[in-house]
Amino acid sequence: MYIGSDDKHVYALDAATGAQKWATPTGNEVRSTPAVVGGVVYIGSDDKHVYALDAATGARKWATPTGNEVRSTPAVVGGVVYIGSYDGYVYALDAATGAKKWSFQTGSWVKSSPAVVDGVVYIGSTDRNVYALDAASSARQWAFTTLREVESSPAVVDGVVYIGSNDGHMYALHAATGTKRWSFSTGGETIGATPAVVGGVVYVNSDLSVHALSAATGARRWTSDLNGTGGSPAVAGGMVYVSVGSGLCALDAATGVKKWASRMRDMGVSSPAVVGGLVYTGNFDKNVYALDAATGAGPASPSASVSTPAPPG
Predict the structure, then answer these.
(1) CA-to-CA distance for 168 and 166, rounded, in angstroms?
(2) Residue-wise DSSP of 92-120
(3) Which of 83, 103, 125, 143 has its CA 20 to 30 A from that of 309?
(4) Rounded distance, CA 251 to CA 237, Å?
(5) What integer pLDDT is reported at residue 52 of this predicted model?
């Protein structure tokens, strides 16, 4: 398991035990989520760089500078790393060397993470637009304008782009043209999370709630008010897992009824991941937790603590 931390490091942890395997420093906080492809960990840092690290050892393969913080999560497709930066650009980098293949300028910083499908890069920008770019050349295919910043990252399923906006709407757009199929209003709560689209249902967090919507029409199936959410939802085994102000909770995917909640020492802000019957999540208390996905049961103490390694000598 690979994770970035505000202590400026990227960590590799044993998924079964939480034991630290390696820690690699960057020059600032790491708020990007890693992508792991072909034995390489790709991740951004607030030190303005995109990194490629050996997944087994943490050794740095390359680091490519951008003009500002990198909090976007990379998409790695066909030997190319696609990622956004707070300098307002979307970058395509050679996955082997880090060399820049192209960059596309938006009108403001890019926190959104790209989705790359059928040779097209879909990504949002705080200039209020959702963009579709040619993955080979960066040529703009279309741009859809919302009413406020787009910090959400797109999910692209069956020719439809699902993405949220700080204007309080969830949008479904035709992937080929950018025309709107439908939009859903949260009633004012911003959507910065990445939607999960499973079984014809769109699950997405807003500021305070989790919503389940028909992927075809945008009709609401249910809304669960959690009084504050963090990260993006994970959907597995008929459950929706969400970070909340007190830790982590699990909802029934069909009804939105809360199945369990696990209180932690501080606020839950990371996006949970579900693997092998366990749900993993990070917390503001500097720990990573592994909980039973069915019951929420976990260790009496955190599964792993991320902290700056002592200097050699």
Answers:
(1) 5
(2) EEETTT--EEEEEE-SS---SPPEEETTE
(3) 83
(4) 11
(5) 99
CA quadruple 42, 287, 282, 186: dihedral positive or negative? negative
How far out from the chain centre does Cα 169 lie? 18
The pLDDT assigned to 308 comes to 47
* 57, containing H or E segment: none
| Low-confidence stretches of the chain (pLDDT beneath 70) | 265-269, 284, 299-313
Which backbone phi and psi does 2 adopt, to 5 degrees? -120, 140
Under 8 Å CB-to-CB from 107, ≥6 apart: which residues?
Answer: 88, 125, 127, 129
Tell me what pLDDT residue 312 has. 37
For the stretch 21-24, contacts whose Cβ atoms lie closer than 8 Å and that sit 24 or more positions apart, written own/partner, are 21/58, 22/57, 22/58, 23/58, 23/306, 23/308, 23/309, 24/51, 24/53, 24/58, 24/59, 24/60
Q: Which of 281, 290, 288 is nearest to 305 (CA)?
A: 288
Average pLDDT of the residues of the chain:
93
User: What was the pLDDT predicted at 299?
Assistant: 64
In 1-88, the DSSP E strands lie at 2-4, 9-13, 20-25, 35-37, 40-44, 49-54, 60-65, 75-77, 80-84
- Torsion sign across C-alpha atoms 270, 272, 219, 153: positive
